Amino acid sequence: MPRLPVQARDTIPNLRWETEDSSRNFVLSTESGDAQPIFSHDGTKPGRPKEARMTFSIIGHCHHSGNIGVASTTVSLAVGGLCPFYNAEGDIVISQAYANRKLGLETLRLVNAGRSNATILGEVRALDNDFEYRQLAIVRRDGAMICHSGSTCRSWAGHIEGHNCIAFGNALAGEHVVTAMTEAFAAAAHESLSERLMRALEAGRDAGGQVATEGLHFDERSAYLKEYGEDSDPAIAPIDLRVDICPQAVTELRRLFDIFTSVPSYNRLRGTRPDETPAIHQWEAKHLAHNPPPSPFG
After folding, report:
1. I need a surface site. Which of 110, 139, 146, 278 has the fewest CB within 10 A?
2. Residue 15's domain spans which residues?
3. What's the rounded Cα separation, in Å, for the pair 279 and 289?
4. Is the CB of residue 69 less than 8 Å from the CB of residue 193?
5. If DSSP codes are grouped into helix, strand and coil, which group holds residue 28?
């Protein structure tokens, strides 16, 4: 009976790799003897892609502030709860295309274990029989980043490395979508990292975004944007926004972002100087009058 490759068996400490079970799933067993399927060989078993997902994303690093961030959008719903994974140090993993949450978690555990980005991709490839269906990206809190685009992702699929960023996507109108994203990121070098990520998403949408097999355009129905980095702690994310269900998710994310962009300063104020912090409705009336959020009083 086949076994996992030798190089895959030592990637997670305190676990014992076993042969495949009768359902042809790779299993991990703990010292107590419990076994759990991880990734499947069989197309009918858990872990094998069942439906196509199409997404375009960008990871970026600002060498001025030291901040890192990610932004993504897709026709799938609630992408912010499906594809990104974060640790307490501010590192980010994104698993998309035929997204597999276990894959994202295993990748993040390898990040936490101190593996290099290149080593992690090799170890995850050994763990996942469907690795060529995936797009997987990692951006470390220090700005080091890497991306894998599988050869069997829905076309057009791939990634382009720009200056301090990588744009990647699948089931796109073409390579020009990710090219437009890296160009928009570079052209906004004088802006905050979050603004640059937001403009990159808008550029990808405007360049044609996602398409179905029949060539029909897919609307972006969910999106997210997250930026790590604050003076008090580099693992704090001052910007963390999601749009889970919306017919024009990138437009809605922009609307939320434009309202929220000043709010981190208020959050810092009430966290560090509570005695000097005004009531939220008073602060909003002064600082958000040009683009007000809904009234707190209905």
Report:
1. 278
2. 6-40
3. 15
4. yes
5. strand
